[in-house]
Design a protein that fits this description.
Length: 138
């Protein structure tokens, strides 16, 4: 299986300030900005491209149910997850199952950009939140 870094997700408290930093200091370009009220997401997301790489800035929209709000309370702002494009998510999930690596089943979804994604269980990844994703319609 081929793995390619897709993006890095960063938990932030103030989306405006973070966008400003990534645009003016790092020379990034804002590609998209949207809110997701989906259960288990509840975040506002800004996608930036910096030097050909993507960064997602994630700010909670619900401070009681958003996983980003929980992350900020537990660990503070900073890298939330690393996402790998796996080519075929279904095959990657089968491979994980065969290797006894668990996933967070309720995180499986397709976002507004057509990216199918799921998070691996951090208990099986030395505490790092890892996202596997593919783009089946591209």
């Amino acid at each position: 299986m081929n793995f390619k870094l897709d993006h890095i997700g960063i938990a932030v408290r103030n989306l405006e300030d973070s966008i400003y930093f990534y645009e003016t200091i790092l020379g990034g370009s804002l590609i998209d900005r949207y809110k997701s009220d989906a259960k288990g997401v509840e975040s506002e997301i800004a996608i930036l491209e910096i030097g050909g790489n993507r960064t997602e800035l994630l700010a909670p929209t619900n401070n009681t149910t958003s996983p980003i709000a929980r992350f900020l309370k537990q660990k503070g702002k900073g890298v939330h997850h690393i996402a790998y494009h796996v080519g075929d998510l279904d095959k990657a999930l089968e491979d994980l199952k065969n290797r006894d690596i668990r996933v967070l089943e309720d995180s499986l979804r397709t976002n507004k950009h057509g990216r199918r994604l799921i998070y691996l269980n951090p208990a099986d990844t030395d505490g790092t939140i890892i996202e596997y994703c593919d783009y089946p319609n591209q």
